[in-house]
Amino acid sequence: MKSSADDIIRAVVDALEQRASARGETVRALGSVRDLVANDEAEIAVDYLINTVNAFRLALRQDEYDRLVSAAVRLDYADCLTDIDRQLLVPHSDDF
Questions:
Q1: How many angstroms separate the first and last alpha carbons of the chain?
Q2: Is 23 helix (H, G, I), strand (E, B) or coil?
């Protein structure tokens, strides 16, 4: 069974929150992304998540980005992903 777009977005938000927390940071905007998903606004959530990643300079693993692409395609909203700062994409690694 494939994950829904909502599940994918939540999983990426969870991973970003964990990494931010490990650095001693709290990024409240990630909670807003989760709220958008809960309120059936997944398209807006993807856009807001990309803006949050860029604004807070959050590293996004390539596999997380790939899952976001999958979710955005399911939502017919993939255009917003072109806005991500490519310097924030990192290989799958626990070392960052």
A1: 31
A2: coil
pLDDT tens, position by position, 19-66? 999 999 999 999 999 999 999 999 999 999 999 999 999 999 999 999
Residue 77 tokens, joined: 């909203």
If we measure between CA atoms, which residue out of 74, 36, 40 comes closest to residue 52? 36
Q: How far is CA 85 from CA 4, 55, 62, in A?
A: 25, 10, 12
Contact 68, 8 (CB under 8 A): yes
Task: Give me the residue label for tokens 């998540």.
Answer: 49
Phi/psi region, residue 78 (left: phi>0; alpha: psi -120 to 50; beta: rest), is alpha
**Do 78 and 49 meet the contact criterion of CB atoms below 8 Å apart?**
no
Do 81 and 64 meet the contact criterion of CB atoms below 8 Å apart?
Answer: no
Mean pLDDT of 10-16: 97
